[in-house]
Specification:
Largest sheet of chain A: 7 strands, mixed
Distance between the termini of chain A: 66 Å
Number of helices of chain B: 12
Largest interface: A-B, 71 and 75 residues
Shape of chain B: globular
Radius of gyration of chain A: 22 Å
Radius of gyration of chain B: 22 Å
Oligomer: heterodimer
Order of helices and strands of chain A: HHHEHEHEEHEEEHHHEHEHEEEH
Number of helices of chain A: 12
Number of strands of chain B: 11
Strand order of the largest sheet of chain A: 1-7-6-5-4-2-3
């Protein structure tokens, strides 16, 4: 039989009615103790603990249903769910490094990844350096004999450059360096990391998997060869995902395809409208021809999500605040990927590459609302921005 | 929680503020990632006070804040940080005060996953661990090195239930400039108040007695001081550690009945322990609440009660007889963890998890959790179990 297509799999993966009285959805298994009928049964389960239910911290049928669906979506072999996207990143990074090792982080990586590397890993004798994500030819010059992990993110946080993941992963693989990718922007829906040489794909499932801003959840997906070391990392840290949150994560995935399609069309419509406004210097959206790495996006991705940025014309900070405070439909807050539109003023730290500028940057998440309402709202916001210029 | 109220009152009310939750007695389950701010200025305030306000789901919600406040009240500490499991709370507490090049003194009878974190995980990050005799007391000063940053205790210890002299160890550790971290899960914070004994950081697997229904994985780290709390909260932030809102709700729900549950666990634990003591099949019962227990004097000095978890050493029996007993138990389930409403009994082997003091006691080791069932039913079940132990016949 032909392998089902992605949108079919999103509706069915992880569902096992035969194990659950015919129910489509897995029950929420809230568990610590798992009891066994006999000593022998307990010993048998423990001997293969990653594939059996032995203790709540090591997963339940609820978390494994979610994990199965994520692994399939990412195109990996196995997924382990943890409590947040950042916990997923920490699990993946800590799996491969020890004191004395070196990690490379893309210069446009998620800020908490930079914090984890600089402030946390450093204390445990792990050194971090940054590389220019758009210089795939030069990345190997950053490799050191003790480099163990290269962290990639495409497009990058806040600035949305799209690196050539395949080229960077290829160089790293040649040097024996593990490639950890934060694939949250594409949700795994628009980009298949394992086709490009990525070893470990991380998702902040908080974003598009959950999709309703009501759970913190992370997922780490691997191929069989890295499963043992990555799962061990999560186990040692005591990481796991709460059953209610794993349930909400899988529940969100059932509508991921319809949501992503709407996020994509809405965001493109709004982004194109913004590109024509005089107050906007540049729109930072991978699907737009002037976005650095647009060619990589076109070649490697099958679409775009609801998240992009803009660089405004140079203006005092009061003008940016006036814009944001004027907006009625865009909530001001961290995270993204829910059904609702969001706005966030952004500032980036760059050590190995230049940030877009010179004007202030704002990040938008375009939700499932009618895009014309969003455009009207943004129009009023831009008027408030202009009013502060004179 | 107002000062001056008695413990049983505090545990019923701590962490709850009906005026802030539309009159509801219980704090709602706040499932959140994004938190919306009305203005940029409000968001900036949020960033500055990110640990003290509702800022982003990962940093905490009213559900986790309520639980943390109540547990800190129970433990008698400044404030708590929640984590997704007891083990996560242990690793978080260790990684908050240890860097590469530092030295850790870890009690020899620690929870075995805590032990493995030291042997494998922390070792990879350049942290050296020395395991010490749980009964070392003030002698811990002999093991202190210039780079010893943490002395970790667990009392009573896992599987073998030795009781540590916490004040003596804490005093020596502090003299050497080390933080004192205690795994206080056995007492649930109900029967031992760690900060009064010199502990800096108290860790709990809230999975056990606080949640109390075997339906949640959750950990809490409570500190004596604001400074230590901020250090731990910051490190938790780097690791992305957070606790699920639903699990926090269930744990706080469990906490409301902790006092009544612990009373019963203690009562039934003593009944069962004394019953075991009278049996010919039993060599020794490891339960600090028993008068003859080696840790009884310190337990009496430092604890106000005992939980339902204890050890039993049987004589030498063929393994198939032991399994005939365990496999046929009606009420004592086999499984990991403990602290829920149900009774549990598993076979254990402390020997592979001891290095400072060799475990050489002959016989079969069991760990028993006395649940909320009627003790007469439990004793009937155990009596039949011992018949199978002796005969080797399965039920």
């Amino acid at each position: 039989m032909r392998k089902p297509k992605q949108n079919t799999r999103l509706v069915h993966d992880g569902s096992h009615p035969e194990d659950n009285y015919g129910l489509l959805n897995p029950p929420v298994y809230r568990a610590s103790t798992v009891s066994f009928a006999t000593v022998a049964a307990q010993a048998e389960a423990r001997a293969d603990a990653d594939n059996n239910f032995v203790y709540g911290r090591r997963g339940t049928p609820t978390s494994s249903a979610f994990e199965e669906a994520v692994a399939n979506l990412e195109g990996g072999d196995k997924t382990i769910a943890v409590g947040s996207g950042l916990a997923a990143i920490a699990t993946a990074m800590l799996a491969f490094v020890s004191a004395g090792d070196h990690v490379l982080v893309c210069d446009n990586g998620y800020t908490p990844t930079r914090n984890l590397s600089e402030n946390f890993l450093k204390r445990f004798g792990v050194e971090t350096s940054y590389y220019d994500p758009m210089d795939s030819a030069g990345v190997k010059d950053h490799f050191r004999p003790n480099s163990k992990v290269i962290y990639v993110e495409a497009p990058g946080s806040h600035t949305f450059e799209v690196m050539d993941v395949g080229a960077i992963a290829g160089a790293a693989r040649g040097a024996g360096i593990k490639v950890v990718m934060d694939n949250t922007w594409s949700a795994g829906y628009f980009f298949k990391p394992f086709d490009f040489g990525v070893d470990v794909a991380v998702q902040a499932a908080t974003k598009y998997h959950v999709g309703h801003s009501d759970a913190m959840l992370g997922a780490v997906t691997v191929t069989k060869s890295d499963q043992e070391v990555v799962f061990a990392s999560a186990r040692q840290l005591g990481h796991h995902a709460a059953p209610d949150d794993a349930y909400l994560g899988l529940r969100g995935m059932r509508t991921m395809s319809v949501r992503m399609d709407r996020h994509q069309t809405n965001a493109l419509k709004v982004a194109e409208w913004l590109a024509g406004r005089p107050q906007i210097e540049r729109v930072l959206h991978p699907a737009m021809a002037d976005c650095p790495g647009h060619e990589n996006w076109k070649r490697d991705f099958s679409g775009s999500c609801g998240l992009f940025g803009v660089v405004l014309k140079s203006a005092p900070v009061e003008a940016v605040h006036a814009l944001i405070d004027q907006l009625e439909l865009f909530g001001l807050g961290g995270s993204w990927g829910g059904y609702e539109s969001l706005v966030l003023p952004t500032n980036v730290t760059r050590s190995a590459s230049a940030a877009p500028g010179p004007g202030p940057m704002v990040r938008f998440h375009i939700g499932l609302e009618d895009p014309d309402d969003l455009i009207e709202d943004l129009g009023a916001g831009l008027d408030a921005f202009t009013a502060k210029l004179s | 929680m107002k000062d001056g109220k008695r413990p049983q009152t505090r545990i019923v009310h701590a962490g709850s503020d009906p005026a802030r939750q539309r009159g509801a007695v219980n704090t709602p389950v706040t499932r959140a990632s994004t938190v919306i701010f009305p203005t940029v200025a409000a968001m900036r305030d949020g960033i500055e006070n990110r640990f003290d306000t509702v800022f982003y789901g990962r940093h905490g919600t009213p559900s986790s804040f309520a639980l943390e406040e109540a547990v800190a009240d129970l433990e008698g500490g400044y404030r708590s940080v929640s984590a997704p499991s007891g083990l996560a709370a242990v690793t978080l507490s260790l990684m908050s005060f240890l860097d590469a090049g530092d030295h850790l003194l870890m009690v020899d009878n620690a929870y075995d996953p805590s032990r493995r974190v030291c042997e494998r995980f922390l070792k990879d990050y350049g942290i050296e661990t020395t395991f010490y005799d749980p009964l070392i007391g003030a002698g811990i000063s002999q093991l202190m090195q210039d780079n010893t940053k943490v002395v970790f205790l667990e009392s009573p210890g896992s599987l073998t239930f030795e009781v540590q002299d916490i004040p003596a160890i804490a005093a020596a550790a502090h003299k050497g400039g080390a933080k004192v971290i205690l795994d206080n899960t056995w007492s649930a914070g109900q029967f031992l108040k760690p900060f009064a004994l010199g502990v800096d950081v108290s860790v709990q697997a809230a999975t056990k007695y606080i949640a109390g229904h075997a339906d949640v994985m959750l950990g809490l780290v409570t500190t004596a001081t604001e400074e230590d709390w901020r250090t731990i909260k910051t490190r938790a932030g780097f690791l992305g550690l957070c606790a699920s809102a639903d699990d926090c709700y269930l744990a706080l729900r469990g906490l409301r009945t902790l006092d009544v549950r612990m009373e019963r666990h203690f009562e039934t634990g003593l009944i069962l322990a004394r019953w075991f003591q009278e049996r010919d099949e039993v060599t020794r019962v490891l339960y600090p609440a028993l008068a003859g227990d080696p840790g009884h004097a310190i337990w009496q000095r430092d604890f106000t009660g005992a939980s339902g978890l204890f050890g039993v050493i049987l004589g030498e029996y063929p393994q198939e007889n032991v399994e005939a007993m365990l496999d046929g138990m009606q009420y004592f389930a086999m499984g990991f963890s403990w602290g829920g409403f149900e009774s549990l009994m598993i076979q254990t082997n402390p020997a592979p998890n001891r290095s400072a003091v060799k475990w050489a006691e002959p016989g079969i080791c069991l760990r028993v959790h006395a649940g909320q069932e009627d003790p007469e039913d439990l004793i009937d079940d155990l009596t039949r179990g011992f018949q199978r132990l002796n005969s080797g016949e399965r039920s």
